[in-house]
Structures are given as C-alpha cells and as structure tokens.
C-alpha cells in the first residue's frame, strides 16, 4: 500500500473535504447508520452510527437519537468501546443497549433525558444479543456456554483450564468442526432469562445441543418474549448430527422460568421457520418460513399463527417475493417488510386480513421499516449514490422526508457516477436486468474501460444499494464504467428465476453474462468493449474461474475473490453442506456428474487471461486451498497472476487497512491490463 495513502488515512477520520471523485478513503471513512428503533410513543428514533477508528483499525459504534420530524439529532454515547443494539424500555424513558466498555459485552441502560449509562448485566460471559419483555422487567440474553454446564462459572472455568493446557489438540465426533470463520469448541449459543433488577440467569434452552440464535449471523430477531412475559419463542436448528446439511430451523417455546423442556411449535415444516414477532394485541404470532428442506434460498413466506391455540395460515402464498423481516403496524392490521424486486429493495405493506401486498417505495434500498406517530413509518434508506440515512413517510409511502444527514459534509465534496438499469433477452429468452454505471466526470465523447462485476450468492443481486464491499462507485471514481448483470439465480424476479440455477452453475448464468455484456456494449457507446476486466467473489469467484476456461478470449484481466476451483473438493472442504447438496442435487458420491459438468478445474488447460486471486485465511466457506490451487495453476501455466492473501479475514474483507489494500491492489490490477496501450499476453506453453 502506498505510504502516502496510509499517512492520509492516519491523519483523518472523515473523507477529504476538497471536491473529488468517490474513492477508497471515502469508502473507509463515511459514517454508517444502522439499527434504527422507534420509541414506544413513536416520536423519536434511536440508531447506531459507526465511525472508523483508523488507529485501532476497526469500526466504532455509538448511539444517536433524532426526533420524528428530523430535529434534535444528538449523540447519546461516546465511549471508545462500541455501543450497539438499542432497545427501548416500554415506558420510553430509557434505552437498553449492548456495550463492550469494561472489556466484556454486557447490557447497559441509558436514561434518555439525562444521566449516565448504568450497567444492567454483570455476567462472566459476553452477551451477544438480547431483548426485553413487554413489561420491561426481564431480559433474554444470548450467551456462549457448554450445554452440559449447570452454571455460567462452569463454562468460564472450563475455558480457563483449556487455555492453560499444554496440549492444543481438539477432538471432534460430529459436524460442525468449524463454521464461517470460527472453529467449534463445544460451546453453544443459549438463551438465558434474568430480571432487569438483577438476579441469577436461567437457561431456558437448557440441554439443547443447538444454537439460539443461530450461527453465524443470527441475532435478536430470532427470539422474543411472549406477550404475557411467561415464555420465550425462539429459532433453533435442533437436528442432531444432521446440522451441517439441514436447513430445518424451527420455532420453539420455552418457559421464561426455565421449567420443563422447550416445545417445538413448527413440527410440520422440515424447512426454515424464523423471525417470530407478536402482534400488538398479543393474539397473533407472525414469522417467516420456507417450504423446501435443504434449500437456503427458498421463498420466505409470511405465516400467521393464532396465539396461543396455534392455528396457522400462509399470508403471502400469492406474492412471489421473499420477505425480509416483519414489523406490525400499531393497529395490527398491517405487516411491514422489505424484499428484493428487480434491482431494487423497496418496502412493502401486507394487509393482514387479505394478504394483499402493496409497495411503499419503488426504488432504492429500504430496511428496518417501523410504525411511528401520526400515521407515519420510519425506515433506513440508501441508493447507489447515497449511503444510508433515516427517512419517514406516510404509511402509503407518500410524503417521504429525510430525517438524518449523517454524512452531509463529506458528501458535499464527493462526486459520484450516474447509473441506469437496462434489460435484455437472456437464457431461455427470459427478461434479464442489469446496471451500467458511468465513470465520475463522465464525458460522452470518450470510451472508458469496463469493470464487469459478477455478484455472489449465487442467489444475490446487484441492487440499487450503497454497499461497503464491492461498491461500484469505487470503480467509477477511478475512471471505470461498471456493468453488472442479475443473471438467472438472482433474487427479486420470482422464485422460478432464483431456482433456475440449480444444477446449472455454469450454464444459464454464463449465458446471461455473455448476452448482458454484449447488450450493454452495443447499447452504450462509451463502453470500451475491448478493454474489460471481469471481477467476482464467492459464487462470482467461481464464475471467474469458469470464465477463464469457457470464455477465455473475452477479457483483458480477471479478479477472483474467494472462488471455487474444484467443485468436488469444494464440497469436502466447506462447512454448510446443505448448500452444495441442494445446488448440485446430492452429494459428490451420489451424483458425481453434477459436480463435474461445470467444474472449473477441468478447463484449466484453456486458461490464458491474467488473473488476480484474493483469499482470506479465516474463510471456511471457500477455503484457502481453492485459491492456492488457482494461483498454482496460473503460475504453472505462465499466466500473469498475483495472489493477495489476508490471514486475518474471513469470506469478506472488513478491516479498514485491509480494505484499503484490497482496493489499491484490485484497481492497480485493472489499470495494468485495461489502460490504453496495455495488452494481455498469450499464455506460455507448459513445459
């Protein structure tokens, strides 16, 4: 990394104020708003604001507050350690939150109208997520414990003893051995209930060899108190030794006093059930459910369950979109949600009586939709040209008003690239969507080199969303036009379009990419069709390896981040086995042809395009040997190549300094091969 850039980053905590195209320094230092929570009276919104601590090489989270009309924005916490996950007390006079101050993640409480934060929990283990009962007297907290331990101290003592042991060996007799970026050590995430006023926590998931909330990404949205506070409804995958190849998450009901065993509520569904939330009157439990076991990208339907008698109905069977998160309106007549929809991620309102769905926002990326006072809703919102801020609108989406401007000063000096959507006829003659982004300071008389971005998932989308990884503005600000295609398998176009990629990883998606790039370069004369570099991560990285052998003469260069080289070995060295088993219709020994028909390793002999390979040492989803094998093949064949390795990153690159190095290396690689006069040499023959 250039020393000048390091020095610049070390001296500033905000983007440069002089006018400039969007760059990596902006991406690192823009403040990030998340986790908005509307007060019980609907008049105020608490939220988390992340700033970048460059010296510590990490993000730092603080709590903020703003009024519903956008006035009175103020910072509530400023401790050097992170404060996050705000939860309003039922009376609206204080906020509970998690803080790592003091060296341990615990629940704290802050009076809104004045006073210092007070520590609520003083447990010997970190609190990873929590919620508060409706009467404000109890907490449910998620702690990592050994399931056979009767006390929290037992878990602490066992970990201390292991740390003192001279032996580093671990013995496993079932999966998971490791998950996402963490080796299993026998602990499980269990839910404990304790009084807010203090007392002994009770394990309400006692004896379960399962995680609640789930790993690696589960949070407080996976558990809730019952309306009377006597129980806790939670999500868990309690399937014994099948855990690594099962998507059977269920809802359970546990007694808040820890008596008896949790009772499974969703006994008839062998697929995912999650995200429970009770109606304001406590008479209905809404949750999200898939219907096909083993498939993590099935459509999430909204289910309503009468409480407590258990009668259920599917509310959104006719809506061909996958709901993300649920919030009830104050009168219980509407459920708010969000979903991908044709390059957008708008908010939707679902009528509880009829199941009718109406969009509240047509464009942009909405999240965390919640009811507020005066018949309004509050939501987080961003687009490709604007990072997240809070907005409010009427419940029909009209009269939208921006409530926060957390990056106002920084954005005033940043110039962004403009983008527009396009469509074309893809595989099977289906309508396929894509984006083209113009370079910053676009000149229609010029032709620009192209960054052709291929998204991961594969059930993902390049939507109208301001992201802090693979942000197309980082390329547009560096002088590149950007093209992205939502190929078959992408979300937001109906479940059949998403399903179409099963057992066809290198088929319809590649055809869509080929036709999409051709359509874009034909439609937009400023795209330099001969100076294109293709880039992708995860499934996109797989596709880069597949392109290298099956579209070998098209690109000046390739960038492969966390991409599979060998589909057969990719099954054996990953952790969530349900994913390849669904995508390839079985295991490699039961259906070997599915793992061979679109396997990049079998086409290495046709590789010729220069490739940058990137990998994280803590990536247990697509392991580092896949990247090393890719780089070995490139080097052995004499193909110009580089290997960028992050020993401390997982499937993503998140540390600020590492993100800077990633962007510097990737953009430098594109410059090397796509700038005027550069040309990719032919591959050398292998001796």
Q: Would you give an account of this structure?
A:
The chain is of the alpha+beta class and 687 residues long. Helices cover 17% and strands 31% of the residues. Strands 33-34-36-35-37-38-39-40 form an eight-stranded mixed sheet, sandwiched between helices. Strands 2-3-4-5 form a four-stranded antiparallel sheet, with no helix packed on it. A four-stranded antiparallel sheet has the order 6-7-8-9, with no helix packed on it. Strand 37, helix 8 and strand 38 form a beta-alpha-beta unit. It is globular.
**C-alpha end-to-end distance:** 35 Å
CATH class of the domain at 415-674: Alpha Beta
Portion of residues in beta strands equals 25-35%
Number of DSSP E strands = 40
Biggest beta sheet attributes? 8 strands, mixed
* Assembly status: single chain
Shape: globular
Low-confidence residue ranges: 1-15, 680-687
Give the helix/strand class.
alpha+beta
User: What helical percentage do the residues reach?
Assistant: 10-25%
């Amino acid at each position: 990394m250039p020393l000048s850039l390091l020095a610049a980053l070390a001296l500033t905590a905000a983007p440069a104020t002089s006018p400039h195209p969007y760059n990596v320094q902006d991406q690192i230092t823009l403040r990030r708003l998340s986790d908005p929570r509307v007060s019980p009276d609907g008049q105020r919104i608490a939220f988390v604001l992340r700033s970048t601590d460059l010296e510590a090489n990490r993000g730092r989270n603080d709590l903020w507050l703003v009024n519903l009309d956008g006035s009175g924005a103020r910072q509530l916490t400023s401790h050097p350690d992170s404060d996050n996950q705000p939860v309003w007390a039922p009376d609206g006079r204080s906020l509970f939150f998690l803080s790592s101050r003091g060296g341990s993640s615990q629940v704290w409480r802050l009076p809104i109208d004045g006073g210092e934060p007070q520590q609520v929990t003083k447990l010997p283990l970190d609190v990873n997520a929590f919620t508060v009962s409706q009467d404000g007297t109890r907490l449910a907290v998620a702690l990592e414990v050994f399931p056979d331990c009767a006390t929290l101290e037992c878990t602490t003592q066992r970990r201390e003893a292991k740390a003192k042991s001279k032996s580093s060996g671990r013995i496993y007799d079932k999966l998971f051995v490791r998950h996402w970026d963490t080796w299993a050590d026998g602990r499980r995430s269990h839910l404990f209930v304790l009084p807010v006023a203090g007392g002994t926590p009770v394990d309400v998931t006692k004896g379960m060899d399962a995680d609640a909330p789930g790993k690696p990404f589960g949070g407080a949205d996976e558990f809730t108190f019952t309306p009377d506070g006597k129980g806790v409804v939670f999500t868990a995958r309690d399937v014994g030794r099948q855990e690594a190849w099962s998507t059977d998450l269920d809802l359970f009901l546990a007694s808040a006093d820890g008596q008896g065993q949790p009772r499974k509520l969703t006994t008839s569904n062998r697929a995912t059930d999650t995200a429970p939330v009770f109606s304001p009157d406590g008479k209905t439990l809404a949750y999200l459910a898939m219907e096909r076991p083993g498939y993590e990208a099935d459509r999430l339907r909204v289910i309503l369950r009468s409480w407590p008698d258990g009668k259920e109905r599917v509310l959104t069977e006719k809506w061909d979109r996958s709901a993300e998160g649920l919030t009830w309106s104050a009168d219980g007549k509407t459920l708010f949600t969000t979903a991908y929809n044709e390059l957008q991620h708008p908010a939707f309102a679902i009528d509880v009586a009829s199941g009718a769905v109406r969009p509240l926002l047509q464009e942009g990326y909405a999240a965390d939709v919640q009811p507020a006072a005066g018949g309004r809703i509050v939501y987080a919102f961003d687009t490709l040209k604007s990072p997240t801020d809070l907005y409010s609108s009427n419940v029909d989406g009209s009269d939208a008003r921006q409530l926060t401007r957390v990056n106002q000063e920084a954005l005033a000096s940043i110039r962004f690239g403009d983008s527009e959507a396009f469509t074309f006829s893809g595989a099977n003659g289906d309508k396929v969507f894509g984006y083209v982004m113009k370079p910053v300071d676009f000149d229609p008389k010029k032709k620009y080199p192209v960054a052709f971005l291929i998204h991961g998932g594969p059930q993902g989308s390049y939507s109208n969303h301001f992201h802090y990884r693979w942000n197309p503005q980082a390329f547009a600000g560096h002088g590149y036009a950007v093209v992205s295609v939502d190929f078959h398998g992408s979300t937001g176009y109906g479940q059949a379009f998403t399903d179409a990629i099963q057992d066809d990883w290198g088929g319809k998606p590649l055809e869509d990419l080929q036709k999409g790039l051709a359509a874009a370069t034909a439609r937009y004369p400023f795209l330099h069709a001969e100076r294109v570099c293709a880039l992708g991560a995860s499934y996109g990285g797989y596709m880069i390896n597949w392109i290298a052998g099956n579209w070998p003469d098209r690109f000046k260069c390739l960038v492969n981040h966390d991409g599979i080289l060998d589909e057969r070995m990719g099954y054996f060295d990953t952790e969530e086995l349900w994913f390849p088993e669904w995508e390839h219709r079985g295991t490699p020994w039961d259906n070997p042809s599915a793992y061979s028909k679109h396997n990049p390793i079998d086409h290495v002999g046709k590789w010729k395009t220069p490739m940058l390979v990137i990998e994280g040492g803590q990536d247990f989803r697509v392991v580092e040997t896949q990247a090393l094998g890719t780089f070995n093949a490139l080097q052995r064949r004499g193909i110009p190549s580089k290997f960028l390795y992050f020993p401390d990153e997982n499937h993503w690159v998140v540390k600020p300094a590492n993100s800077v190095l990633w962007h510097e290396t990737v953009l430098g690689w594109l410059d090397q091969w796509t700038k005027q006069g550069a040309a990719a040499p032919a591959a050398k023959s292998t001796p």
